[in-house]
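Re: the 79-residue chain
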Amino acid sequence: QYFTLLIITDGVISDMDETRHAIVQAAKLPMSIIIIGVGNADFTAMEFLDGDSSALRSYTGEEAVRDIVQFVPFRDFRN
């Protein structure tokens, strides 16, 4: 079995350390996380979680074994 978690958000993350840690742990499981950003918020943190520029690390320094997060800003596809 493989799971996909879809998160639709219009805001900024307030618990970045805990979120990073949870994603690093989830990278060991058969799952992917898709985050869709709606609205005009600053989604810089979501782009960081995407891990395309560098491997995601938890606050303990543990590196994600694979990239499981894909961030999509909905405003880029509205029209």
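The radius of gyration is 12 Å.
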